[in-house]
Structures are given as C-alpha cells and as structure tokens.
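PT: before anyone asks, these are the final sequences, not the draft ones from last week. 548 residues across everything. Please model them as a single complex and drop the result in this thread when it's through.
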Amino acid sequence: MATISGVGLSWRSNLSQIPSSNPSPSPSPSSRRRVFSPIKMAVSVDKKNFTLQKSEEIFNAAKFVLLSSPPSPKALSRPSRRCSGSIRLFWSSSSRHSWPQLFLDHALSGYCKSSSSQQKDLHSPLVADSSCFVEELMPGGVNSPVRAFKSVGGQPIVIDSVKGSHMRDVDGNEYIDYVGSWGPAIIGHADDEVLASLAETMKKGTSFGAPCVLENVLAEMVISAVPSIEMVRFVNSGTEACMGVLRLARAFTSRPKIIKFEGCYHGHADPFLVKAGSGVATLGLPDSPGVPRAATIDTLTSPFNCLSTVENLFETHKGEIAGVILEPVVGNSGFIAPKPDFLNALRQITKENDALLIFDEVMTGFRLAYGGAQEYFGITPDLTTLGKIIGGGLPVGAYGGRREIMEMVAPAGPMYQAGTLSGNPLAMTAGIQTLKRLKELGSYEYLDKITGELIQGIVDAGKRAGHKFCGMYISGMFGFFFTEGPVYNFEDAKKSDTAKFARFHRGMLEEGVYFAPSQFEAGFTSLAHTSEDIQQTIAAAEKVFRQI
Ligand SMILES: Cc1ncc(COP(=O)(O)O)c(C=O)c1O
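LR: through. Structure below.
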C-alpha cells in the first residue's frame, strides 16, 4: 500500500520502479548542462529565408545601437504606435533586463538604416509586440490558452530558445523552467542526442505516410514499459489519443456513457469539455460554447477521489457506462494525488460493472515511473492514453491496451480512426531517444530526489513567511497551492488564493524562475535540473514569499 511521507506528500508504492540494487543516481545532470547556443534553424518569412541566429545578431546589434545612441526625449514621448511593418520587439514587463518598446524601435531603426522593404525583410521570427501585434495575429496571441498568462496577469514571455533545464526569452533573459513544454522535456530541453538523432532521421525525410521501422521500435518500447498496453496506436496529440480511446471504449462495450472527474482534462474534444481542468479551469470557462448538448449528454462527472459518487452513477446508469476515464494523478487542476485506495476501488467497480478503466497518462506516462502511474500504483487499467514524453518534444499521442480491445481498431477491426502524420519518423525518433535515456538506472530516483528537495524547500519557505500553503509531488511532477490543504479534488484546489499565486508567479519570473502561469497546472522537473537550479529556486521563493 502507498504511504505518504513529509511535507512533500511523496507517494511511494511498494512496487519500486527502479531495482533497489542500484541506488546510485544517473550521471550528474550538471555534466549535461550546457551553455546556450543559438538555434540555427531556417525560417521563412515573406518568402525570404532567415535564421534564428540571424535574428539574434540583429537583436544584439540593436542593443548595441541603443547603448551608443540613446533615443531622444522626443522619441520617447511618442505615443505607442500600431504596428506598421517596422520591427517590433516584444517587451515583457516582467523581464529582468527588458527593453521598453520605444527604446527598441529606436535602436532598431538605428541599426537598420535601410529602406522600408529591407525593414520588412527583417520582420524576423523574434518579432512580437505585447500591446497589439501578437493578439491581432492569433486569438489571445497564443496557440494554446494557458500560455497567455490570463490568470496571472501581465504579458507572457516570448521564448527564443531552450536548453537543458533553462529557457531564454527574446530579451536574452534566462529562466529555470518548471513547465518543460508542459511535460515532454523530461530529459531536459533540446537534448544533444535527441537533436542528433532527429538530424539523422531528417536526412531520410520528415514523413512517409507509410509504415516505418521507427514506429515499430517505439511501439515495442511502449508495450514493454506500460503494464496495460499489449497493442498501441500512435496519433498526433493527447487530445486525439483521448478521442480515440473514448470511441474505442464505446465500440468495445456497445455502451454510450463515460464517467470523468471534475478538473481532469482529457484534451479539447467535445465529450470531455465538461467540468474540465487545464485552460478551462484556469480561465474559469463554463462548458465551452460550440459544444452541442448531444456531444456531452453521455458524459457523467464525479469529484476526484469520491468513490460514493462513482458508485451512485453506476447504480443509476446500470449497463450504460462504457468506462471511467481519469488522470490517475491529476495535473490539470494543479497537482492532486489519489487517495490510497481510490484507484484500486475504481478498478474493482469497473470490473464488477463490465466497464473499462481508462488511465489518461498523457501527463503521467513515463513521468511518475517508466511504466507510468499504473506501474507506480500497481493498478492495471484496460486502456491507456499517452502523449507528451513519448514524442520527446515533437507532436505525438498514443492509445493502447488489452489486445482484444485494440483489435477493434481499424483496419484490424471496425472502429475507425486514422491520421495523416501519425507515427511520423521525427516524433518516433525523439520518443525513442527520450525513452532510452529515461530507462537508464536511477532516472526516476533522481527526479524524485530533486523534486522532493524543491517542494520541501518551497513549502518550508512559504510557511516561514506565514502563508497558508501546501505542496505535493511524485517523481518529476509537483504542485503547490496557497491553502492549508489537504487538496483531494478540484473544489479543494479552488480554495487556493489565486491572486496570491499570481503575485508569486510574477515575483518568481522576476527572479528568473518560470512556473506554469496558472494555479491549476502541475509543474515538472527534468533530469537536466541540477541541485543548483533547485537551491536557486528555493532562494528565489524565500524572497518572493516575503514580498507578496
Ligand atoms: C492528461 C491530459 N490528457 C490529454 C491532454 C491533451 O493533450 P494535447 O495537449 O497533446 O492535445 C493533456 C494536455 O495537457 C493532458 O494533460
């Protein structure tokens, strides 16, 4: 049975995920830390080729011009312009060494001293504008809602490059990153071996639209790692994986209804946008407009960790429930662990009712343990969804499970599901390299150690400063709330002082630490995070807790 220890509430099941005969950690990640090097990647803008390296040269030159030729008071008193095709650099008010918009405009016009067409050519990838430009291009200025900093206020950081445990923004500020691209970066960002393998694969092409060896290699690795998976289907995102698994559960059981938990997020497909977590929770959105009633009528919900509600639902809808889907450890309402017997009880009740138990391990897969939450807790579901880590930072998702169920999937069976880029060689390559690294002995022990130190340090600092505060972690996944806790479900999570969290988030950003810009998201560490990163983060938290 699992036990809880310390402030970190580190759940340890009796099933050790790493043979205890080798307690030594993997080679120190500090040896893997590298100085940032510019990403040399061709980018096409207005049919002209640019490189990110070029952008960086321009940016640095702009700073130089600014220093040698400061803007006139008149220039500084100019009212902010709408974007006009000249270069607009993003100015983040949160950046520690950022440059006000007008300074940069001035600096760049000095640097460019060129025709307007040349200036347009220089409309390079680091162009962004906090006040008007970005939001005019994309809804909210982003391609996924939580990135927009809506719940913590201020402007989002525009990232230029990532390496190891660090991110660097377009202003040149560095941050210790605890978002990890929302989970995939578990061995650290832009790992050299992953990049080298991708370069090799790329020589052979980027997409075949036909079977390839690499997808078989990754399938083999996933099947041998994840206890419930006997067959797997790769898709391109976690959302797709959850859509596929829902159709499969309904097809296999010939039943329409599904139970999901409040605050759990299973991607943005219609049937799951009911009391969902992640961006839906962060933005406080009700069920999204555009989702027809018919799409959600068969979605039943229960508070997480509340077995009696699940029992009642099975009683009320006898013979109609295809399955129960959940994040075995919730990461989309903040971090919420299951009560000791909860997963086991769900396994029992689904079996008794001939329904399927589905673990959405898009976040927890290969993160809590090599075999995911199901290995960590010793509970085997019927079906599992994966994403994030198995793509090593490239777009991927997967669903898998018992052979007799998976054989329902087309073309082996009648349940249709397909994907143009599914199993594409690049995502497979990055996934294979990432899993190889994770499989090295000591990986999860290292994650557990540094994450434990991090959460213990932050919780202690928060309490010392007099805040109502609690934090939890398992392996490389963690969360904290501005409430005394305990936090067992989304209702408990909502008791957190989110205004205080916003101030904390902003303060930490100023100190060079990047946490998820939402109270309702989990945090992630990686093998590239060093003790130095952790200590620096705790010291920053200590300072920020006293200010908020
Ligand atoms: C548990 C879980 N399921 C599904 C998804 C959706 O995955 P994606 O964003 O790749 O569509 C997420 C995304 O964060 C997730 O955390």
